Amino acid sequence: MRLFQVESITEDIFRIKMPYVCVYVFEGRDRALVLDTGWGYGDLKSVIDSVTTKPYDVIISHAHSDHYGGASQFNEVYMSLPDKNGYLNRLKNDIRPRIMRNALKKDNFPVHNPLFVDPIPKAIKYYSNGHIFDLGGLSLQALHLPGHTLGEMVFLIPERRLLFTGDACTDNTMIYFDHSAPLSAFRESLLNILKIKEQYDTVLLSHAPYQIDKEIVDSNYYWVEEILANRDDQLIIGDNDGQPIYTARDRRKSYPPLQSLGNIRYSQNLKY
């Protein structure tokens, strides 16, 4: 199996898959943009340079190592300002080989290998809510959606009617880390995304299934409301540093299509 697999979403948007995660390349008339850098396992930069010959910026959606791991391959990266402290703290402890173990073994790639690049970037710039990256005929607008992390950003690509939510709003949104935002903040931010619902048709994700119906935002909103009202299934599925991890929807149960689309894994101490 090849380490990197490139596929076209549109004529100017590309997805680069690797074990467990993917990154995106957006190519405008004047320049390009790379969204996330994966684990930092293998030479991602050479793949990107084969996809676009235009100058490009590198943007990190949030401070998790499967998204910033390859940052050192680039001269500078843009990081969400609210994730700054979490990012710098996690750079001190490289946990990638441990958390990648199963994903790599599944695809027959070695775990302890010089293919891992240093996750520390050469330079960091910071961007915030509302920032627009104008590529010329194609643009990405950063929208703050705290929950999975404090500073997670999603991106509206209006010209292609797409919304990238990465890990922020998925079929299995995870909000149980010590650097996650409260579920109440997640709910309020989802309302802001729902206000622009008529501007996108499809949602892009960082992990399988990689893209999903736009109703995923509505589904996450439904489940966060249920959690905050103590009406969800409250099924314990594991723990994080000794704290139980709950899932809002028990997948063994039957729900209508909207409710069945999304789910949230959460910690009870992150409600407010």
UniProtKB/TrEMBL annotation:
SUPFAM superfamilies, per the entry: Metallo-hydrolase/oxidoreductase
Any matching Pfam family: Lactamase_B
All residue ranges annotated as the Metallo-beta-lactamase domain in the record: 20-207
Record-linked InterPro entries: Metallo-B-lactamas (IPR001279), NDM-1-like (IPR050855), RibonucZ/Hydroxyglut_hydro (IPR036866)
Cited SMART domains: Lactamase_B
PANTHER family: METALLO BETA-LACTAMASE SUPERFAMILY LIPOPROTEIN, METALLO-BETA-LACTAMASE DOMAIN-CONTAINING
Protein name: Metallo-beta-lactamase domain protein
Species for this entry: Eremococcus coleocola ACS-139-V-Col8
